[in-house]
Amino acid sequence: MSALEFGGAASPALAAFALGCSLNNTRLTFNVHLVVGVLLRTVLGFLAGLGAVRLFHLTGAARTVVIVASSLPSAVLSSVLPARYGVKPNLAAPIVLLTTVLGLLTIPAALYLAELLGP
Question: What does each C-alpha distance from 62 to 40, 97, 114, 117 come to in angstroms?
Answer without folding.
Answer: 23, 28, 11, 15
